[in-house]
Amino acid sequence: MKLSLPYGKGYKKLNIENACVKQILSAQMRVTPTMTEAAIVETALQNPIGSSRLDKLAEHKEKIVIIASDHTRPVPSRILMPLILKEIRKGNPHAQITILIATGLHRETKRAELIAKFGEEIVEKETIIIHDCDDQKHMRFLGILPSKGELWINAIAADADLLLAEGFIEPHFFAGFSGGRKSVLPGVASRASVMYNHNSFFISSEYARCGILKDNPLHKDMLYAARKARLAFIVNVVLDEQKKIIHAVAGDVQKAHANGVAFVRKYNQVYAQPTDLVIVTNGGYPLDQNLYQAVKGLSAAERAVKEGGVILLLAEAIDGHGGEMFYRMFEEERDLAALMEKILAIKAEDTVPDQWQVQVLVRVLLKARVILVSSLDDKTVRNFHMVPAHSLDEAMNLAKAMLPNETFSINVIPDGVSVIISPKEIVNSRTKVSA
C-alpha cells in the first residue's frame, strides 16, 4: 500500500504492508459539485436559512462589520469576500464596511498573509482591522456568559449596525465544529473571555469532543456570545481535501450553521476499531504550521488507538511549537500525570494561555506514545514528551520497536482535522454521536 500523506505544503510518501492496515479513516468528501465554487456561495447567499437576504439586511445600515478568519484557517476568502461585499453594496452602496480579522488568541495576521487570503485589491481598497485580544480599551462588555465568565468583545464588532461573519465548517476537537458562532467567541473576544470559556472543567467534559454540540459547554457559551453580539448573518463553507468549496450555507448563525454541520457529519463521521498504531497528519499547511495546531490531529488519533498504543504524527511545524506557555508547561513538569492534576486544579477565572491545548495533549500522551515527524529540533520534541523522527521510515522503525508484537494493526488518518472518529465499541453511546 502506497500512502501519500499531507505534510506542510507537500506530501510524505510511505509504503506499508496491506495486511497491517485495518482502516484508512478519512472524510468521504467525494462530492462533485455541478457549480463553480463562486456559484455555490452565490446560491447560498440567494437562499439564506432563517434570515432575510444580506442585501435587505444591509439597507439603512451605516456601520457594517464582516468578521473574517485569520491566517491559520484555510477559508477561501478570495472567493467569499467579493461576493459578500457585492451583496452588501447591492442593498446599501454607501455603507461603511469594515473587515475585522478574527485572530482570537493568535498572533497578528501579516500584510502578506492578508494579500494571500483576500487578494491585493481587497487589501488595498477595503478597511481591514486586525483584532487584538489584549487591547482592553477597545473592548465592549456585553454581559455574563452561561459559564459565569464575563463577555468582552471587540468594540468594532459590538458597535456595528450590522454584524456578519464568513468562515468554514469542519470538525473541532473540543468545540464540536468550527464556524458559525466561533467567529465571535473566541474570534473577536477579549483574552479573559476566551480563557474563561476554555477552562479545564469544560475541556474535560465528555461532551467537549469532536462532532458534539449538544450539551457541549464551550458551544453553549459561544452561541450565547454570538447572539449577544448581534451576529446577524453568516456565510460558511465546507471544503474538500483540496480545500475547494463543495457546500455553502448563509443566514442565521444557529440555523445556517446547523445545516452546514449536518452536511459535514454526513461525509466526515467514520467509525474506527482502535489499533496498535495510528498514523495521522494535521492535513498539511496551514494547519500544521505549528505543534499547537497539530494537537487537533492527535485528538483524532486518540479515538482510533488502543490504550498503550503508538501514534505517529506528521506535522511540519515550520513556525515552531506555536505557544510559549504551551511549551513551558511541558518543559517545567516532566510528570504527565502531575501536569494533568495541576491543570485540573486551575480555577476557570485563573485559566492561563494554552492550558487547554496542553490538557488535550496530556490526555493523548497518557493513553499512547507519540512519535513526531516535523521540522522541530529533537530537544523541543522531547520536551513535549514525544519521540522525534526525521523521516517516515525512521518513525515506522521506532514504532515497531515500541510495540510488543511483531504483527500489529494500523489505522491511517490522512487528515485528522477533517474527520469525526467514533470508536466502534462506543458508537451507540449518545455522548459520542449527539448533534
UniProtKB/TrEMBL annotation:
Q: Can you tell which superkingdom this protein's organism belongs to? A: Bacteria
Could you tell me which residue ranges the LarA-like N-terminal domain spans? 7-207
Q: Which InterPro entries match?
A: LarA-like, LarA-like_C, LarA-like_N, LarA_C, Ni_dep_LarA
> Per its record, what are the GO molecular function terms?
lactate racemase activity
Q: Record's Gene3D superfamilies?
A: 3.40.50.11440, 3.90.226.30
Q: Where is the Lactate racemase C-terminal domain?
A: 272-421
Q: Name one Pfam family in it.
A: Lar_N
Q: Which PANTHER family match?
A: LAR_N DOMAIN-CONTAINING PROTEIN (PTHR33171), LARA-LIKE N-TERMINAL DOMAIN-CONTAINING PROTEIN (PTHR33171:SF17)
This protein is called Nickel-dependent lactate racemase
Q: Which organism is it from?
A: Longicatena caecimuris
